[in-house]
Amino acid sequence: MARIAYFGPEGTFTEQAARSLAAAGDELIPFETVQLALAAVRKGETDAACVPVENSVEGPVPATLDTLAEAEPLVAVAEALLPVHFSILARPGTTEINTVASHPHALAQVRLWIEAHLPGARPIAASSTAAAAVAVQAGEFDAAVCAPVAAEHYPLEVRATEVADVRDARTRFLLVSKPRQLPEPTGADRTSIVAAAANRTGALAELLTELASRGINLTRLDARPSKTNFGEYRFFIDFEGHIAEPRIGDAVAALRRRCRNVRFLGSHPRADGVRATVEPSAGNADFVDAAEWLAAVRRGEQA
Ligand SMILES: O=C(O)C(=O)C[C@]1(C(=O)O)C=C[C@@H](O)C=C1
């Protein structure tokens, strides 16, 4: 039985993601922020943490990226992908809605809906969608933009469902633990790293070329400030494949050579099951064959 921290409180999308990733009997423990959920794993209070990492409309979740890049290393061991549409919750009897609270990512995904259906209502940022429901229950704001499951946790009235400016929006969540034995490669995996490229002409292009020249397909590239030197960035790069594969290991070792700093953030099966595209002459067998040939040459056994 594992203890799993998640970005709470109860009723967030992240809780739903954590439930989909947990095994029977695992204990789920809510934390107010992404940083606190990840700190619980670092301190050994929990075995893992579930946090959001990217949304198909609003992009990356900065709190997750920055916290994974700093302090003791953590690795993603699994991921979940959830469809994202919202319910609007209010206290029973509320007639006028002047304030609408939610997580900034959620507010950004319903901006047009609020303009059309609650004109003049002021959007208020809350630490999560469910924290907004708690604040509405306490009478601080008039309505909350929440995950549909929040209606089961809080005594609020559902004023609208299926709210979303963009249909079929999705958020990807990670299950993160301290570095440990990696999940087995499946052929449909994702590897994540964060790299601090040297601050000189072409450094990012060189880094990406190491991946491109090995036929490795990127699934995400985000830049976040290093925080210490203005104008210096960390690059978060996700790509198809598993670090246990020769072609991926070769590329990650090359990045390690090229960059001031590379942190491995995990290799795990993709939630969407999409298999890696492998370019001609860039398959694992090609890398193994080339390494064996080189070893034979070095032994003086060239045919
Ligand atoms: O507040 C929540 O319910 C969350 O799980 C966070 C979060 C996010 O960080 O993007 C997750 C999914 C939605 O896109 C909106 C908010």
From TrEMBL:
<keyword id="KW-0584">Phenylalanine biosynthesis</keyword>
<dbReference type="Pfam" id="PF01842">
    <property type="entry name" value="ACT"/>
</dbReference>
<keyword id="KW-0028">Amino-acid biosynthesis</keyword>
<keyword id="KW-0456">Lyase</keyword>
<feature type="domain" description="ACT">
    <location>
        <begin position="192"/>
        <end position="270"/>
    </location>
</feature>
<dbReference type="Pfam" id="PF00800">
    <property type="entry name" value="PDT"/>
</dbReference>
<dbReference type="InterPro" id="IPR008242">
    <property type="entry name" value="Chor_mutase/pphenate_deHydtase"/>
</dbReference>
<dbReference type="InterPro" id="IPR045865">
    <property type="entry name" value="ACT-like_dom_sf"/>
</dbReference>
<dbReference type="GO" id="GO:0004664">
    <property type="term" value="F:prephenate dehydratase activity"/>
</dbReference>
<feature type="domain" description="Prephenate dehydratase">
    <location>
        <begin position="3"/>
        <end position="178"/>
    </location>
</feature>
<protein>
    <recommendedName>
        <fullName>Prephenate dehydratase</fullName>
        <ecNumber>4.2.1.51</ecNumber>
    </recommendedName>
</protein>
<dbReference type="InterPro" id="IPR002912">
    <property type="entry name" value="ACT_dom"/>
</dbReference>
<comment type="pathway">
    <text>Amino-acid biosynthesis; L-phenylalanine biosynthesis; phenylpyruvate from prephenate: step 1/1.</text>
</comment>
<keyword id="KW-0057">Aromatic amino acid biosynthesis</keyword>
<dbReference type="InterPro" id="IPR001086">
    <property type="entry name" value="Preph_deHydtase"/>
</dbReference>
